[in-house]
Amino acid sequence: MDSDFSIAPLDFCDDDNSMFNIYDQSSTNTFSDQTMDNSLNPLSEEQKLLSQLKQNQIIINQKLKRIEELTKAETKVKRWDQNECEQFNQGLEVHWRNIKSVEKFVPTKSSRQVISHSQKFFLKLQNSLQGRFVPILLKDAQQKINHAPKMTLQQAVAKCQGKNTFDIVRKTINATQAAGSVIIGIKFVEETEGLDYEVIEAILVGWQ
C-alpha cells in the first residue's frame, strides 16, 4: 500500500550517541602516544645512564693520569748539587738529628727527599768510621777549627773514660772527610762514643 510516510535511513557515522561510535578518535590517539612514550622512556633513561658513566670514566682517567704524572715527578731522582749539600750540612750543624728543622735549610728539596738523603748520609758516616788513619786528613780537620779548644789535650784525655784517644782521632777525621764538615764529624763521634763535643775537639786539635 502506497503512503507518503517514509523512514529516513540511519546515519550511524554522524550519530554521536550511536552504539557503534564507542571509541573517540582523540582517546585512541592519546592511548597510542602514551604507549609509544612508555616504550621509548626506558631506552632513553638507559642512554642517559650510559652517557653519565662514560663521562665519569673520562674524569676518573684524567685524575689517574694526573696522579701518575705527579708521582713520577716526585719520585724522579735528581742528584743533589753542591749548594744543596752545603745547605743540608748547615742544617745538621745547627739542628743535628732534628730533620724537620734541617729541611728548612734546603728549600729546593721535599721533606721526603731530605729524609732519604739524611739516611744515606748517616750510613756513609757510619761506614767512614772503619777507615784507616790518614795524617793529611788530620791536618785538614785541624785547619777547619778556627778557634782555641775549651780545654787542653791533657784535660781532654783525662775525660775520655779510658777510651783509646788515637781511635777517637781516627774516627773523627774520617767522619769529617765523609761529611765535608768538621762540626758534623765531631758531632757524629760524640754520638757514637758518648763523649762531650769539647773533649773530642780538644783531642783533635792537640793531636800531633
From TrEMBL:
Highest taxon of source: Eukaryota
InterPro entries (UniProt xref): Homeodomain-like_sf
Protein name, entry field: Myb-like protein
Organism: Hexamita inflata
